[in-house]
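Long-time lurker, finally posting.

We've been working with Glyoxalase (Halomonas stenophila) and I want a structural starting point before designing mutants. I don't trust myself to interpret raw outputs, so I'm hoping someone here can both generate the structure tokens and explain anything notable. Sequence follows.
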Amino acid sequence: MSKQVAVILSGCGVQDGSEIYETTLTLLRLDQLGIGYRCFAPDIGQHHVIDHRSGEVADGERRNVLVESARLARGEIEPLTELDADDFDAVILPGGFGAAKNLSNFAEAGADMVIQGDLVEALAAFHEDRKPIGLMCVAPVMVPRLLGPGIAVTIGHDPGVAGAISSMGGLHRTCSVEDIVVDFEHRVVTTPAYMLATRIGEAATGIFKLVDRIDELMDL
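Top reply, 14 upvotes:
Generated this for you. Predicted structure of Glyoxalase:
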């Protein structure tokens, strides 16, 4: 496998970490295309833990983002501080509320959010080297803070999140669940995934398109 992609996770579970289907579909498509990948996550405490059956915060429970992300990566995962952009051709961030709670504090601060420092450093290196960057679900809301203003992204058509992107200097593009938005100038690819998906097949179509486009951009 000559091409290598870094996949950055934010925990395990849609409500407090990486969305499991989005992550699995991303890794599946990379494997189907013969693209190698390695997973990374910040070695930090989770914002909180959600009981995914009740949807309630599990008071008093504490978990680590790297340890939880290891569940998704079957143990094959490294701290985000060890991610070296020189070793990879592209990077992809699946969604889930971990992007808004662990990789950033968007869930609390909205457009005033702060991005987790290790993620800022890691993505800056990919962006400076003009290596493709893929983000899905709510993760694209971080783009204006991560990569700068004027970059076209999508989270689907949620007016609140789209408005936050615009207020930070980003360019939001309305998009269907099964499609992608590509900013060719900045080499950023985004798709709504479970911001809109009601079935795993809907999410798969957009996510596969995103990975396919990342694959094409790696050749340019």
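Before you design anything, note these points.
The first helix runs from residue 20 to 32.
The chain has a mean pLDDT of 98.
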